[in-house]
Amino acid sequence: MTKDDPVSVRVALRIRPMLPHETAIACQPCISEVPGEPQVVAGGKEFTYDYVFGSATGQSPIFDNCVTPLLDKFFAGYNCTILAYGQTGAGVSIKFNALSTGIC
Hints:
Elements: E1 12-14, H1 20-24, E2 31-34, E3 39-42, E4 45-48, E5 51-53, H2 59-75, H3 92-101
Parallel strand pairs: 1-5
Antiparallel strand pairs: 2-3, 3-4
């Protein structure tokens, strides 16, 4: 994303890792990344996003790629919104609450 980029909405997908109880009962991932592309395959269909982060990706690369460019625009005077959506129990609200209290 550059400062002159006309795209006003970007979508990132993070594939969550398998939970211990899922691994214990031999569940298999139902989504896979397309190597070298911001795409995933789920249910035999391909989906394309602006960013795709695999299950082994930590928080820092996501922040660096998705949030830092928005902060630059925010400090330049633009309105910016970050919307995190996840399955219930996936930890999205915990991440935002930790950020707002200064824990992270």
